[in-house]
Amino acid sequence: MHADTHAAELADRYVALWNLPDAGARRDAIASLWVPQGEHYVRTLQAKGYEALEQRVASSHEKNVRGNGFRFIATGDAQLLRDTVMFRWQMVPAAGGPVAALGLEFLLLAEDGRIAIDYQFILPTPAA
Predict the structure, then answer these.
(1) How many angstroms separate the CA atoms of 46 and 64, rounded?
(2) Alpha helix locations (H) across the chain?
(3) What is the pLDDT of residues 67-108, one digit of tens each?
(4) How far apart are CA 3 and CA 128, in angstroms?
């Protein structure tokens, strides 16, 4: 598979996870995306291992998707360089409207292609 195709597919699967309403589907997606001791870091939050990752994604989903009607989308700029993938995402109103949040993911991949370490940066949101 071409490197950028692999990166784009990983970015799409990653972003789709945060929109999933079903806890079982989220659990399966996490296991397919991360290694068992996978790590996720954002601002002051960190999660390590499937249980902590499930709690992190569930908390975000509850607040942003179910609670506030947003959805997450990949921006289509994923790039693979050696064992890292970088891409940006947006949090947008599901009903349409301006971007509410922007993020940058920097993923360090394990040998099997799953995420070992996920660094999530929240970027400044442009003025509407």
Answers:
(1) 18
(2) 3-19, 23-33, 50-60
(3) 999 999 999 999 999 999 999 999 999 999 999 999 999 999
(4) 34
For 22-36, letters b (16+ CB in 10 Å) and e give: eeeebbebbeebbbe
Q: Running DSSP on this structure, what letter comes out for residue 87?
A: E
Alpha-carbon gap, residue 41 to 22, rounded angstroms = 23
pLDDT digits (tens, 9 = 90+) for 19-43: 999 999 999 999 999 999 999 999 9
CA 24 to CA 5: how far, in whole Å? Answer: 27
Cα distances (angstroms) measured from residue 24 to each of 9, 56, 77, 80: 21, 14, 29, 29
Whether this prediction's pTM lies above 0.85 is answered by yes
**Rounded Cα distance, 118 and 115, in Å:** 7
Report residue 23 as tokens: 């806890």
Instruction: Give bridge partners of residue 34 from the DSSP assignment.
Output: 115
State the Cα–Cα distance between residues 14 and 39, nearest whole angstrom.
14
